[in-house]
Amino acid sequence: MRLVLASGNPDKVREIKEILRDIEVLPLSSFVDEFEIEESGLTFRENAYIKVQKAFELTGLPSLADDTGLVVHGLHGMPGVFSSRFAGENAGYEANRRKLLEALRGMPLSARRAYFICVVAFMEKPGEVRFFEGKVEGFITKEPRGDGGFGYDPIFLYPPLGRTFAELSLREKNRVSHRYRALSRFREYLNESGLSR
Question: What's the record's note on cofactor binding (predicted)?
């Protein structure tokens, strides 16, 4: 099967290709030189829908999009849908992490409880979208740990392994992550519907 992935983030593309390694996943940039998708939704599901619809419109091929974010209990759910631009519209990974750690400074462990959520949207036919969700619980550390991963991975502690996502290998992370869980449900759908052939 061939899928168009509505993402320009090379880190995300790499992870999704690794998880769906038996499926041909092509980033939207393989079809369109320049594209901009405004994530104007108020929920992860809305943003995933906006992205998958754009990819399908531009290519007419089965398309996949995900919207992912970090939800922190002590910050009333922030950064949430603003995770990638928490420190500003063009902020990088480090600036976002720094702002989050600063916001949590002095807060107790209970306030540092957090979860990553990933909502995957799949469109094969116009107007027909299916959603798949994955979530993983953890805590925000007081300082970054590890050199792997991307985004908030260096400050997201995964308790069952006692390490941050950035301290895990890509293979280890892709066995437990929110993105893996959402894409596993997507893969189950493909198998059950016969679309994976």
Answer: Binds 1 Mg(2+) ion per subunit.
